[in-house]
Design goal:
It is a single chain. This protein is mainly alpha-helical. It has two domains: 127 residues, no CATH class; 137 residues, no CATH class. It has a three-stranded antiparallel sheet with strand order 1-2-3, with helices on one face. A hairpin with a 2-residue loop joins strand 1 and strand 2. The chain is elongated and about 70 Å long. The mean pLDDT is 89.
């Protein structure tokens, strides 16, 4: 890539960042709000940038072959951004950034560059927070499901338990499965991790898809294990114990268990 091409792309990239400042501010606020589900948002662009850096030698050898097909993405995406910004629909405004970037790569660099940059560009979707209404609905369904399955398992383990809504009642205590315990935080983060592991795995595309999709049941399953452990701890040692350091420790272990689960799936697929 020639120096002039680099300067043009740098200037264009700076213009895109300036135009998308409102969306970037919205994402930052969602990443940093209390009890956020997107605290990993900061890492996503850094990971995408790192993947591009890993490809630097391969990219340097590619021939620039601009494609006008980039306008097919760039034009509609800019229109979506403008309409979304005017209507203050933050999610679609932020989401339009990805096809805008893809369109720019096609328009100025060409299809070979896009082939190499497609994953790091698409990976940026994991930094864009879902609409609040979607988070609320998904969180509610997940916590009810987790409470149902956990109650069943607790009973099977010999500890009498009943479920009332998202509350798991045992003989001497109870556990409230609140929104932060629904597992949505780990689900969102682990889907992103699953995408990364699938991308870097040396397996077929079909197996990559299986590895990626396995992150969903693994995330839900590890959260159920966490709730079961908290319910048993609450019954044996009291609700105060289950909501103290043990609660925080289990929150960390969820990610450890999930990572181990993904690693095992990857190993089996190999």
């Amino acid at each position: 890539m020639k120096k002039n091409d680099l300067i043009k792309l740098a200037v264009l990239g700076a213009l895109v960042l300036i135009v998308y400042i409102p969306s970037l501010i919205w994402m930052y606020e969602r990443w940093t709000v209390k009890d956020t589900y997107y605290s990993h948002g900061f890492l996503v662009p850094l990971i995408s940038g790192f993947i591009v850096w890993l490809k630097r030698e391969k990219l340097a050898k590619l021939k620039i072959s601009p494609s006008n097909s980039g306008w097919l993405l760039l034009g509609p995406s800019v229109l979506i951004y403008v309409i979304s910004a005017l209507l203050r629909i933050n999610f679609s405004a932020a989401l339009s950034l990805i096809p805008v970037l893809i369109g720019i790569v096609l328009l100025f660099l060409g299809k070979e560059y896009l082939r190499q940059l497609m994953f790091p560009l698409l990976f940026l979707i994991f930094m864009i927070p879902l609409p609040s209404v979607a988070i609320v609905n998904l969180s509610f369904k997940l916590k009810i499901f987790a409470a149902q399955v956990s109650t069943f398992i607790v009973n099977r383990l010999g500890v009498p338990a009943i479920r009332e809504g998202s509350v798991i009642k045992t003989m001497h205590s109870y556990l409230i499965v609140e929104d932060p315990c629904s597992g949505i935080r780990s689900l969102i983060a682990l889907i992103a991790l699953g995408a990364l592991m699938a991308y870097f795995s040396d397996i077929s595309k079909v197996k990559k898809a299986i590895l990626f999709l396995s992150s969903i049941p693994i995330a839900i399953g590890t959260n159920v294990i966490r709730i079961v452990a908290l319910s048993l701890a609450s019954e044996m040692y009291g609700a105060k114990f289950a909501t103290g350091w043990f609660h925080n420790t289990m929150g960390i272990l969820v990610f450890v268990f999930a990572f181990v689960g993904l690693a095992l799936v990857e190993k089996l697929l190999e």
